[in-house]
């Protein structure tokens, strides 16, 4: 009976942190897909400035994660989550008064800071309350909330933008933020206990040490995540333009819906498989599928092929993402889970933010089909990196003392 209690996953706190994460992410994703249009229509911004208005959000998230990962041991994961949500709500309210593009860009950075802090807190809480024996399954369920928002958020955002007004976007976003705050209030997070042998003197904390900002145990899988997320950013940023180029606009509008459905169906199984058989049993097939899906995308000339690529990429990248986060947690001591989460998300954000910037220079020379063919090779590089950084030594890494 004691084992059953220890391995219980679906607690009230687990459900609350999933709902908190979902509503927070919803307030973010409905703006990401609409802010470039808003900047162009409201401020008359150039295409490059409008693109910056959408992606500069990630800059704020990256810098805030560096601070949050370091400070979470001292502040606590629940307080970190609440501070982040409140900061996000205040930032969203500033959209209503942003009257020029530069003030608007500042607000986007501030919103990114709030989201970076809150998601670090939420990710650390979920890592604390998930049993280690069910980390793959737990992270799979937890991150499904984020996956749903990548499908639902853009649909809501585009609908409001086209049928209501830009103002309604900010109203919906701030309501979602307030809902997440109230959902998070009853959430209970375990206290972060630092072993006496691991305590760092105050003087040492004030000096710059890389270990104060990044978790070494999570770095290998975080680096693989950076490579693979660079490839995925090509889909996130250019699938709409690509579908227009190949005259598949209607099919392209369903891309992320099909992508999300395949993840929702597969993740409960892949998470359990990781817990029982190890990450390699999921990650190798996932990255191979992602490479196949990216290649099919580069060759898409029909709606069937485009949506088939969406489903395969959901099975591939969608499952890799949750397994990578679960590994970052599984390989890290309990008292450094905050740093492990922030390390993983920093590298993920860098990949998602760096990719579109670089690809903007590549597309004019190779086109979107050529880009996706190149990104097929990037996924293969990620597969090779995974093998050497983790896959070939999984047994030793998972059974070493922490």
Automatic annotation (TrEMBL):
Gene Ontology MF term list: transmembrane transporter activity
Keyword line: Membrane, Transmembrane, Transmembrane helix, Transport
Transmembrane intervals: 12-36, 48-68, 80-98, 104-127, 139-160, 166-185, 216-239, 251-269, 281-297, 303-323, 344-365, 371-390
InterPro entries given in the database record: MFS, MFS_dom, MFS_Exporter, MFS_trans_sf
Cellular component GO terms held in the UniProt record: plasma membrane
SUPFAM superfamilies: MFS general substrate transporter
Gene3D superfamilies assigned to the protein according to its UniProt record, in alphabetical order: MFS general substrate transporter like domains (1.20.1250.20)
Membrane topology summary: Multi-pass membrane protein
Every Major facilitator superfamily (MFS) profile domain range: 13-394
Keyword Transport appears in the UniProt entry: yes
Location of this chain's protein in the cell: Cell membrane
Protein name: MFS transporter
């Amino acid at each position: 009976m004691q084992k059953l209690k220890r391995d219980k996953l679906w607690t009230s706190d687990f459900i609350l942190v999933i709902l908190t994460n979902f509503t927070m992410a919803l307030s973010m994703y409905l703006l990401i897909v609409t802010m470039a249009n808003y900047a162009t229509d409201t401020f008359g911004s150039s295409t490059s400035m409008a693109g910056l208005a959408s992606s500069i959000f990630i800059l704020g998230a990256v810098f805030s994660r560096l601070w949050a990962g370091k400070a979470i041991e001292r502040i606590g994961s629940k307080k970190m989550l609440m501070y982040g949500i409140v900061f996000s709500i205040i930032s969203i309210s500033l959209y209503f008064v942003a009257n020029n593009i530069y003030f608007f860009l500042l607000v986007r950075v501030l919103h990114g800071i709030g989201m970076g802090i809150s998601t670090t807190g939420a990710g650390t809480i979920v890592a604390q309350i998930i049993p280690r024996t069910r980390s793959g399954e737990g992270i799979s369920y937890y991150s499904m909330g984020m996956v749903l928002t990548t499908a639902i958020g853009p649909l809501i955002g585009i609908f409001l933008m086209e049928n209501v007004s830009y103002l309604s976007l900010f109203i919906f976003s701030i309501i979602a933020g307030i809902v997440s705050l109230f959902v998070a209030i009853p959430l209970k997070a375990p206290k972060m206990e630092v072993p006496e042998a691991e305590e760092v003197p105050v003087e040492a904390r004030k000096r710059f040490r890389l270990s104060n900002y990044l978790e070494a145990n999570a770095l290998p899988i975080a680096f693989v995540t950076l490579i693979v997320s660079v490839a995925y950013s090509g889909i996130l940023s250019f699938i709409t333009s690509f579908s227009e180029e190949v005259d598949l606009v209607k099919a392209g509008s369903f891309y992320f819906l099909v992508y999300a459905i395949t993840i929702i169906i597969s993740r409960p199984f892949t998470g359990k498989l990781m817990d029982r058989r190890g990450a390699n049993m999921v990650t190798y097939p996932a990255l191979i599928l992602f490479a196949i899906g990216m290649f099919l995308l580069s060759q898409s000339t029909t709606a069937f092929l485009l949506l088939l690529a969406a489903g395969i990429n959901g099975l591939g990248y969608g499952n890799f993402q949750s397994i990578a986060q679960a590994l970052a947690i599984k390989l890290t001591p309990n008292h450094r889970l905050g740093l492990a989460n922030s390390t993983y998300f920093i590298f993920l954000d860098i990949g998602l933010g760096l990719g579109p910037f670089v690809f903007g220079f590549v597309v004019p020379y190779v086109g979107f089909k050529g880009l996706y063919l190149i990104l097929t090779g990037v996924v293969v590089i990620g597969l090779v990196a995974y093998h050497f950084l983790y896959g070939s030594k999984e047994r030793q890494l998972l059974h070493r003392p922490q």
